[in-house]
């Protein structure tokens, strides 16, 4: 039925034969223009624009396109968070649904056996429930539902933060509606399934091919932004500023680069840092000295950086389970980071 319905869709033939096509007028241009006008009006209201009366009925006076763009990004963040929440729910529900289908099939077969149903009827029911389980499993087999949710969420959040930083100057200089919508569309693409999957696959490929970290860390799917707005065509183009990675000084390993700033701040609870920040600091910093003491206590060695998953898990256990979100080392009775490390050391647990 699904294949038949898809075959009857006229858009299927159009996209299969010619993609988006070469005609500028897609036939839906009038409807899309009306929808875009409504979108601009609503985002203008969110950016505290003033309402105006126009020929079509209502309008909104945009005082600053930069403010309009930021309001649009906030709206996209809201929709993106809802999508990521849905992905997490689907991933968590999948095992329960498959188990329920299996349990229902087993129970149904048992009831049929007790009521004296024939073997053909029982085989038919078993095949039906087997098909239902396989169909549901295939429908949930997309990469985004297979990858750990924290990976997807962390990737999207980092790309969004990078987009805002890379285009901060351009956003400030935007002075027209087409450029503003172009930036918002580029920001929206960061949360699209095809973008996330492409980024994950490309990063894995680069790592497997032993690509340099400078290449792996670069945006595989570059944010569709603009580097700046040219206000005078007679002026020479400015020389590009050299790129300096902020991670080179305070994130020394791949495990550390994969952590969000808020998570870094939370992990410092296990290090007994009284005023935690969203950075471990450079090599030799006070935070890293405390980290080394923690790992010594945990039986992992005097390392001032997180090198593998075991180290990260140990530090997470100390921060989340031993200390806790609303406590400190002092309130939990630990004099220093080494004592917290000893509390998570498997060899010293009783």
Describe the structure.
Among the domains are: about 150-215; about 260-350, no CATH class. Helix content is about 65%, strand content about 0%. Helix 4 runs antiparallel to helix 5 (about 120-140), helix 15 (about 285-295) packs parallel to helix 18 (about 335-345) and helix 16 crosses helix 18 (about 335-345). It is flat, with a radius of gyration of 27 Å. It is mainly α and about 350 residues long. A two-stranded antiparallel sheet has the order 1-2. It comes from Rhizobium aquaticum.
Which short descriptors sum up this protein?
350 residues, mainly alpha, two-stranded antiparallel sheet, flat
Q: What would you report as the Rg, rounded to the nearest angstrom?
A: 27 Å
Distance between the termini: 60 Å
This entry's quaternary arrangement is single chain
Strand order of the largest sheet: 1-2
Query: Which of globular, elongated, flat, extended, rod-shaped describes the shape?
Result: flat
Helix content bin: 55-70%
- What percentage of amino acids are in beta strands? under 5%
- Summing up helix and strand content along with how strands pair, one would put the structural category as mainly alpha
The major sheet is characterized as: 2 strands, antiparallel
Output mean pLDDT: 75
Strand and helix order: HHHEEHHHHHHHHHHHHHHH
Treating each run of at least 4 consecutive H or I residues as one helix, how many helices?
A: 18
**Low-pLDDT stretches:** 218-224, 240-248
Task: Report the count of strand segments.
Answer: 2
Protein name: Lipoprotein
Organism: Rhizobium aquaticum
């Amino acid at each position: 039925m699904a294949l038949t319905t898809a075959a009857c869709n006229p858009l299927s033939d159009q996209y299969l034969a010619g993609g988006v096509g070469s005609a500028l007028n897609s036939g839906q241009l009038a409807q899309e223009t009306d929808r875009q006008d409504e979108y601009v009006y609503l985002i203008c209201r969110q950016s505290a624009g003033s309402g105006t009366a126009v020929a079509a009925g209502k309008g909104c006076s945009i005082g600053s396109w930069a403010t309009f763009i930021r309001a649009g990004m906030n709206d996209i963040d809201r929709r993106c968070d809802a999508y990521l929440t849905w992905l997490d729910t689907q991933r968590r529900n999948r095992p329960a649904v498959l188990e329920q289908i299996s349990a229902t099939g087993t129970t149904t077969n048992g009831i049929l056996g007790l009521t004296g149903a024939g073997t053909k009827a029982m085989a038919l029911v078993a095949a039906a429930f087997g098909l239902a389980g396989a169909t549901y499993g295939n429908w949930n087999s997309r990469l985004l539902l297979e990858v750990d949710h924290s990976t997807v969420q962390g990737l999207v959040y980092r790309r969004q933060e990078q987009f805002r930083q890379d285009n901060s100057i351009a956003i400030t200089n935007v002075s027209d509606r087409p450029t503003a919508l172009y930036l918002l569309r580029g920001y929206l693409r960061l949360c699209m399934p095809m973008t996330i999957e492409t980024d994950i696959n490309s990063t894995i490929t680069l790592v497997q091919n032993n690509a340099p970290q400078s290449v792996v860390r670069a945006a595989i799917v570059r944010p569709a932004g603009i580097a700046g707005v040219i206000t005078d065509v007679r002026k020479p183009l400015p020389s590009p500023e050299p790129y300096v990675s902020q991670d080179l000084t305070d994130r020394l390993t791949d495990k550390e680069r994969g952590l969000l700033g808020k998570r870094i701040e939370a992990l410092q609870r296990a290090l007994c840092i009284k005023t935690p920040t969203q950075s471990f600091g450079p090599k030799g910093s006070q935070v890293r000295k405390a980290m080394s003491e923690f790992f010594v206590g945990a039986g992992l060695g005097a390392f001032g950086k997180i090198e593998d998953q075991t180290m990260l898990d140990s530090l997470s256990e100390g921060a989340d389970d031993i200390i806790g979100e609303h406590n400190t080392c002092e309130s939990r009775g630990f004099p220093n980071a080494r004592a917290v490390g000893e509390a998570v050391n498997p060899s010293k647990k009783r």
